[in-house]
């Protein structure tokens, strides 16, 4: 989320209370909370994209408003700059066939990647934004080496790559697709959340760097820099607050590297918490029941586990095909055929060499914003998997 004030780009040290973490003003500059000038600029941006052939207003639109607005916020409301970033992203997505990647990625490969990057806890913060946990110590040199060798041998990923984006990073972007296509739409349509008129386009992250040596940080430097640079370029404004926990004494050296990977807006969202600040600060933004126990909360969630779903999610969903929770692998939401008052969650990916396409559950569509064309490719669009019906694919084991 873009701050309305400037930032020096220096590391943030939180004092003793949650109130010490500055509010960035959510949901200012988001749908439903635009100023007159911002709304006019946004309409001008959409018209400009339409003239350039990158956007069709529909109905249904080729890209949802929330996605387009992320690019405009990221470029400080300068239409030409936002257009350039959006155009570059659209070109990058098509060159790497991101739609096909997400729909056909092997479930085991997806799971291997999920265990190396931020993981959704199954919960949200107090604003309804999905809460992720990232424990850096699991990314040791042996694990990363094995991962990179496996991705290098993945012929399917190689066939999708533009030749410039390494296959190991394409797997990472399947996880970003999961954030924007699955976690955020789900959280957007949960009942009783604040600001229901505003779709969720952000994530809140707890980053645990405890137990990580300077040498390990150094070994991860190139890997994390490449991932951060591409994510900032092609998935702008998907991060909200980032709470760094367990920072060692030498972390100021590491911070010198990290802050150069991000733009100043992203840097302004990163807060380093001392051990005495963790519980009180997190409780200012996250209900105690949704904070993992290791950080003073009540949530049973450990690294590598599947999300510990909020009971509200379990109760809200109408589960189908034997599912009682979300399965492993990629999923997305789309309007339920014949009933646009509901959304269906569709599990995709490849299992045992066979593509899956199965309905997991349906939920009520609470957010009444724009819908995108299910057959339109593009960042934020809801994909259609080869035109196949649900009945044409076998249901996986839940």
From TrEMBL:
Segments forming a coiled coil: none
Chain ranges of the CRAL-TRIO domain: 109-303
Matching SUPFAM superfamilies: CRAL/TRIO domain, CRAL/TRIO N-terminal domain
Domain of life: Eukaryota
Pfam family, one: CRAL_TRIO
InterPro entries attached to this UniProt entry: CRAL-TRIO_dom, CRAL-TRIO_dom_sf, CRAL/TRIO_N_dom, CRAL/TRIO_N_dom_sf, PI/PC_transfer
Full protein name: CRAL-TRIO domain-containing protein
Lineage: Eukaryota, Fungi, Dikarya, Ascomycota, Pezizomycotina
């Amino acid at each position: 989320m873009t701050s309305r004030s400037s930032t020096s780009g220096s590391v943030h040290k939180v004092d003793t209370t949650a109130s010490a973490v500055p509010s960035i003003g959510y949901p200012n500059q988001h749908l439903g909370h635009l100023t007159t000038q911002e709304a006019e600029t946004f309409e001008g941006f959409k018209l400009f994209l339409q003239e350039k052939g990158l956007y069709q207003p529909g109905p249904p639109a080729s890209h949802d408003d929330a996605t387009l607005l992320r690019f405009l916020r990221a470029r400080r409301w300068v239409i030409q700059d936002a257009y350039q970033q959006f155009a570059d992203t659209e070109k990058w997505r098509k060159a790497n066939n991101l739609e096909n990647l997400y729909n056909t990625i092997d479930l085991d490969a997806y799971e291997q990647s999920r265990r190396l990057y931020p993981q959704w806890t199954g919960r949200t913060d107090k604003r309804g934004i999905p809460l992720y946990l990232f424990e850096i110590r699991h990314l040791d040199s042996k694990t990363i080496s094995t991962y990179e060798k496996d991705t290098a041998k993945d012929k399917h990923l190689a066939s999708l790559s533009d030749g410039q984006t390494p296959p190991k990073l394409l797997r990472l972007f399947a996880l970003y697709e999961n954030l924007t296509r699955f976690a955020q739409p789900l959280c957007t349509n949960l009942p009783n959340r604040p600001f229901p008129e505003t779709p969720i386009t952000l994530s809140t992250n707890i980053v645990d760097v405890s137990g990580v040596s300077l040498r390990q940080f150094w070994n991860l430097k190139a890997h994390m820099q490449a991932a951060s640079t591409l994510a900032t370029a092609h998935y702008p404004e998907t991060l909200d607050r980032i709470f760094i926990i367990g920072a060692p004494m030498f972390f100021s050296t590491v911070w010198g590297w990290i802050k150069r990977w991000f733009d100043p807006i992203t840097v302004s969202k990163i807060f380093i918490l001392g051990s005495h600040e963790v519980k009180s600060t997190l409780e200012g933004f996250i209900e105690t029941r949704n904070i993992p126990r290791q950080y003073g909360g009540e949530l049973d969630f450990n690294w590598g586990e599947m999300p510990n779903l909020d009971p509200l999610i379990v109760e809200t969903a109408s589960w189908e095909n034997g599912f009682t929770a979300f399965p492993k692998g990629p999923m997305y939401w789309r309007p339920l055929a014949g009933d646009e008052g509901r959304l269906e969650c569709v599990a995709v990916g490849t299992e045992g060499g066979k593509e899956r396409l199965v309905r997991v559950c349906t939920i009520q569509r609470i957010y009444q914003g724009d819908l995108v064309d299910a057959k339109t490719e593009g960042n934020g669009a809801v994909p259609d998997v080869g035109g196949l019906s649900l009945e044409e694919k076998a249901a996986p084991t839940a």
